[in-house]
Amino acid sequence: MLFKGLEISLTGMSAQRVRTDIASSNLANSNSIDPQTGEPYRRKVPVFESVLVKEGEREAPLSEVRVKEITYDDSPFRKKYDPGNPLADKEGYVPLPNVDPLKEMVDMISAMRTYEANLTAFNTHKNMLTSSLEILRV
Amino acid sequence: MWNKLNSISEMATYYLERSKVIQGNIANADTPNFVPKDLVFERQLTEQALKLKKTEDKHIDPFPEESKEFKIEELNKYSGYDKNRVNVDEELGKMAETAVMYRTMVQALKKELTKMKISITGR
Fold this sequence. Notes:
- The structure holds two protein chains of two kinds.
- By secondary structure, chain A is α+β, with helices and mostly antiparallel strands.
- Chain A has one domain (4-137).
- Chain A has helices at residues 4-28, 101-131; strands at residues 44-53, 62-72, 78-81, 93-96.
- In chain A, the strands form two sheets. In chain A, strands 1-2 form a two-stranded antiparallel ribbon.
- In chain A, helix 1 runs antiparallel to helix 2 (101-131).
- The longest helix of chain A is centred in the last third of the chain and has 31 residues, at 101-131.
- Chain A is elongated.
- The model of chain A has no long low-confidence stretch (mean pLDDT 89).
- Chain B contains three helices and two strands.
- Chain B has a two-stranded antiparallel ribbon with strand order 1-2.
- In chain B, helix 1 runs antiparallel to helix 2 and helix 1 packs antiparallel against helix 3.
- Mean pLDDT of chain B is 80; it is low at 64-68.
- The chains are: A alpha+beta, B mainly alpha.
- The A-B interface holds A 4-5, 8-9, 11-13, 15-16, 19, 47-50, 55, 58-65, 110-111, 113-114, 117-118, 120-122, 124-125, 127-128, 131-132, 134-135, 137-138 and B 12, 15-17, 19-32, 34, 37, 39, 69-70, 72, 88, 91-92, 95-96, 98-99, 102-103, 106-107, 109-110, 113-114, 117.
């Protein structure tokens, strides 16, 4: 269990990576419509959960993180007036994905910062482990 | 003779464990309903190094409540929109503090061992 600390930070990093992946998927599909159903792309949202790790006999419940599920944003679709579009309804409106590029960008920046925080914690812990090697040099 | 070494390494273990708990907090910075934890160290040193000797029953124990265990404590009472209470900056600060203290313990341990070596070899 010596490297548990590093593993914990790694789970945090991979969770944030999933978050950026989903944000970029949302951004890339901000104007997509499924050609078969005619339904626009629905915004995806990752939900995280913490997982308790017990370490041997010493009761130190540590928490890793993992992606619990990827849910869909239920907010209504955007509507655009475009009567010429074959997918337009009777009033001439075309439904477009409920993706707000601004939200996705903010989400991405937030994910990046948390990723960096995890990376810093990882490096700090690694340096701690390395510094304990100095005892051998007495 | 080994008391000092033991208490120093006990402290080093504490800082290493605490660092893991803090890393768990940082990893869960976006988990809904997550409550950050901290490892609290309660007078571990009094047990071995700093305890006063009782020569009479009437002497008062200066550190009455001793616990050998590290205690997990839940932090921060406020929360954001998703009921997550982690403050990443605070956690990173604690992480740096923990790392410095761990290094200090390692250096202290090294010093103790060097002293022993000197007393054995004479130089």
